[in-house]
Specification:
About 80% of the residues lie in helices and about 0% in strands. It is built from 20 helices and no strands. α9 packs antiparallel against α17 and α15 runs parallel beside α20. It folds into three domains: about 170 residues, Growth Hormone, Chain: A, CATH 1.20.1250.20; about 40 residues, no CATH class; about 160 residues, MFS general substrate transporter like domains (Growth Hormone, Chain: A).
Length: about 400
């Protein structure tokens, strides 16, 4: 199957078509999404002061952004599959700009939450598009690495921008992705297939399931049963409409589900250690938050940069070997963090977690989209990224529970 896929890709590239988008533009199109999650981390006190609320209330904007990217990823991936790259670039850019304007022009908590959610919908659409245009392991590696590197530097970047310009400028950083939109439009490809009839019920059930899943770590007794009931309803809907919003050719593919599950697990480990790191370093080394934040740049930048090379090299290794290596690295990281008190070993655990998650996002995205029919690859990419992004909700909650 791998040989047939490579032959098909080679044949496709030999045909006349749109210009190939340069790899740096793909990194710029994808990476700024991580600013929406990471950049507000060190400016929450400024937000709380301006809004007249506590830091916990100000953090609602980050929660809204997380919900928006989780919801927007499958929704806009479906639009990408049905309408093509140009349509999603237009819609996603409009959402990104509208959300950013809400954030920077109206200093109120409702505007912060609504603006962050709308901004996240646009960011999700641009990131899915970048990964769709990344048609080789090397290019996918760069796109995935950009998300990891921006995430690692996001808190420090957000703080510096807030100090030099304003907190509004820090919240507007995801808008940088719009700079890559003209280049991406030149590489626009047609839709994967003729648009199927719209499935509004399937879309609503998926949206409700994503919302319930995001809430599970915070309200498990309420959201857990709701998520299970919605999952069963979605399975029933998929049987009635196998070509609906959740295609049976994707959701019923065991290899796709395995790749998505592994990506979710690696993400949970990474985000759990990311949020546990300051407490672990305070407990074992006596470091304050500022020192920990600076030192933690090293393992997370290491993971982000190295993942680009590993994803590019993964095309020459058997898929099972790559998956096993990711699984071993992902399991070793939390075990090492749990049993050691030495700072170098704690940093090694965090570097392993970052490397496994960033590499896994790129490698497993290629695996997940390579095992489904070509007409459903955009939707598969959206659902795969949804699985990875849900780890952002679960990882920190697990860190609070365990550490």
């Amino acid at each position: 199957m791998d040989h047939l896929h490579r032959s098909a890709v080679a044949h496709h590239r030999s045909q006349p078509g749109p210009d190939r988008v340069a790899t740096p533009w793909l990194a710029l199109l994808a990476g700024p999404l991580s600013y929406g999650i990471a950049a507000p981390a060190l400016v929450l006190d400024d937000l709380a002061e301006v809004l007249g609320t506590g830091e916990q209330a100000a953090a609602a904007g980050v929660t809204a952004f997380g919900w928006g990217i989780a919801l927007g990823t499958p929704l806009l991936a479906a639009l990408l599959a049905r309408r093509g790259v140009r349509a999603i670039l237009t819609v996603a850019t409009a959402l990104l700009a509208a959300g950013t304007l809400l954030l920077v022009l109206i200093p109120s908590l409702p505007a912060l939450v609504a603006g962050a959610a709308v901004q996240a919908l646009g960011s999700a659409g641009l990131t899915v598009t970048a990964m769709k245009l990344a048609d080789s392991p090397r290019r996918m590696g760069v796109a995935a690495a950009s998300l990891a590197v921006v995430g690692a530097t996001g808190p420090l970047t957000g703080a510096l921008v807030a100090d030099m310009i304003s907190w509004q400028a820090a919240l507007a950083l995801p808008l940088l992705a719009a700079l890559a939109v003209p280049a991406a439009r030149r590489g626009a490809t047609p839709p994967d297939a003729a648009p199927a009839s719209f499935d509004p019920l399937g879309m609503v059930v998926v949206a409700m399931l994503v919302t319930a899943a995001v809430v599970v770590p915070h309200r498990p007794l309420v959201a857990g049963p709701a998520a299970l009931a919605l999952l069963l309803l979605l399975v029933a809907r998929m049987r009635v409409r196998p070509d609906g919003f959740l295609p049976a050719a994707v959701a019923g593919n065991g290899r796709f589900l395995a790749a998505s599950a592994l990506a979710f697990g690696l993400g949970v480990v990474n985000f759990a250690l990311l949020y546990a790191a300051p407490e672990l370093l305070r407990e074992h080394a006596g470091w304050d938050g500022t020192r920990s934040g600076v030192v933690l740049l090293a393992p997370y930048l290491f993971g982000g940069f190295c993942s680009a090379f590993l994803v590019a090299a993964s095309g020459r290794a058997p898929r099972r070997v790559v998956a096993a290596a990711l699984l071993v690295a992902g399991a070793a990281a939390p075990l090492l963090a749990a049993v050691t008190t030495a700072v170098p070993l704690l940093l090694l655990a965090m570097a392993l977690a970052s490397l496994a998650a960033a590499t896994g996002q790129g490698v497993l995205a290629l695996h997940a989209t390579g095992v489904v029919p070509a007409s459903h690859r955009a939707e598969a990419l959206g659902l795969f990224n949804l699985a990875y992004l849900l780890s952002v909700a679960f990882g920190p909650a697990i860190a609070v529970t365990l550490w």
